[in-house]
## 1
Amino acid sequence: MKRFMCVFLLTFMMVSQLWGQMQFFKNADFENIAYAHETIATVPFLTKVTLLPDQMDTISGQQLASMEKTEGESIQKAIYSWFLQRQENGKLSVTIQEPAISNAKLKAAGITPENYYSYSPAHLAHILGVDAVVMGYYETNQPKAGQVGNIDCESRNKQNLTNLAVINLSIFNAEDGELLVQFQNGIAANQESMNEEIVQALMKKVSKRMAYTKI
């Protein structure tokens, strides 16, 4: 139990240091490369969920893995929704592939959330049939799912625990796997934040610097 508490505290400290800070990288040729892009896709994010020791004692490794898979797909859908909204408003220069289509293509190729990070971004983009792929990492101590097994996530709020999340998002060019843009941000809240809101807050900060978005 001490080991789990140390992990939780280290995660809390790491995210607390990142809270409010934006780390941003943009390829100098992003605009020129993106000009020829027509379709992009996003894949489920690699996700780590950190729980309290008493919560860890109530679930199996398989349940935790399932929770993390659900979180990763939730972030994928939230990013898709952000791009789709701008696409429908005529403020996006590319088309965003539906997650269901992307995930079906990955599954047909034998690529799963457990192994797809062993493939290059260029290979994933080729499988998906798109010009660029959006992927990344997400870490949280407040899962979106209300209850998994015997875990009641709302109990965290009753203990006055700060809900923390770190999201790292990257976009890679399909042709050569070149990193086009990458940004990371830590988010803290006193109440449970839905993953859609986390993505909205992040993308709002960088939308003006995204080559795909029209101002």
## 2
Amino acid sequence: MDAADKEAAVAHFLREYPQAGQAECDHPALVGCADVAWSQIPGCPAGVPVLFQCLLDQAAGPEALRVLGNVLMDSVFHASVAMPTALPFLIRLAADPDIAVRSGLVDLLVVAADLSQPVDADNERMVLLLGNDGDHPEREQCKAAFADHASVLRMLLDDETLRLISAEDRACLLNAVAPH
């Protein structure tokens, strides 16, 4: 998705859920979200805070998660430059067992963790698919965001209510916080 598509997706979401984001949001996981200059991040729509807020809503949450996932990904192989900024909010929301879209948040975290891993420059196929690390500074920035929130992520992975997370996904998330 390009920037115009992402903006259009957020606008469509807001038309479908006109009540979205109108309530005061004081969820501790979203502290500071509204203060981020999301529209100053290349390719990122200004409506991102509303999408985060709507993750808390039972009715709008699944669609907000789908749209937010599209906004935070540039393609199946590339996280957007907004992903590192979004990760702290995603991690803290996923750690809350009362969030209805929690499993989807964990899935998005696994994708971000997987895409934040360095690419072996000698592996031509991987470089072709994922690009060089030097061309994707968001990988290292995501890795730093995971490291900064390692304690919350480990707490999330220790949560017994997440027993449906696969061993492979659990390992991927733990690897994201491991020093390289």
## 3
Amino acid sequence: MANGLRFRTAQDLFSACPAVAQDMKAAPTDQPSIEFCRALLAGRVPEEAITFCAYLLPERAAIWWAHECLGNLAELLGDRDLELLALVGDWVGEPGNPDHRAAVAQAVEVPPVTPVSWIALAAGWRDGGSVADQVAAGFPTAHAVSAGILAGLARVSLADRFAVLSAFVEMGVQMAEMETQQQSADAF
């Protein structure tokens, strides 16, 4: 399955998305992307597997993945984050809906200070924000997705953190594989 991914190897991803090198310390290899991601999870800084997945997934899929990850942490989120999570969920379900676009656009006017505000920022950029907005902010959508998931993960107890991190990475890997299958089906 890994050969059909958007980025066949970790090196392919790093070459196509140079910003990932600013978000990760790990050096890319010629390993297939999924193997590299799992090696990161088993490595010294397993959180880098989250960052790698954020760049590996297409932007809309990455935002949905972040939505799902943070939805699993709902009991650790405040009321404003839960409201933003619902907005992001609506946006992913119907990105062309003007009501959802307007709600996300309004939500991103506030600087990202909570896990879901990072995801709302990513959705706002993906939806209507320009590439110039992303460059001016200094990072791409994948950075915001990674920051949101990692900020949520920081709220998980130390005893449970690696298990939750592993589940999130596996969800990201599965989404990458599903995206590949969908792209293959769309090609026919």
## 4
Amino acid sequence: MTLFSGNKLNCIAVLILMAMLFFSCQDNYKRVGDEAQKQMYPRGVAHNFRLVRTKAQKDLDSEDSASSKVIAILTSSVGENYENLSFPHMTFPEGLQVDFFDDENRKSIIRADYGIVYSISNVIDLQGNVIIESHDGKKLETSQLYYDQDNEWIFTQEKFKYTNPEDGTVMDGEGMDFYKDLSLLKAHKTNGLMMIKEEADD
């Protein structure tokens, strides 16, 4: 009987010791910086994503059914939807392409390795090997730029290379904003060769 009681006491002592060890091993480490960020998971993931942006040809009444015009098409192999967050957005981790059309339906293209579309501001953040090719052959290359879809305006603070085969312009610089088809440019810092056409005298 004494033996049995001793074993029982030993078992209880071992259980208490294990419980103490378990509670003393709790993670009380205070995380800061990147570690403190909460993991975000997309509400949905779309493959072979395609988004068409249109505008009405004229102002519509409540019962009007006038046709609309395609002004931009965004395509990507993968689109991740984070519209459930306080700052809703979509990401395109495998790159994207935006085809946009002017009033004469001429197409220009933007390509990038990564993109984020912010739903509230309607701005696209394009990152990594960003290339814009206009319908008339102009080309801009940079590492990051922003496309404001509502105002059809594009801007970057990064280094860029701009070429225009029509007039032989080759320009490097840092920081630029411009209309979506590269028809109106405002460069901040530039160097390179720019050709300026002279008007013929009458």
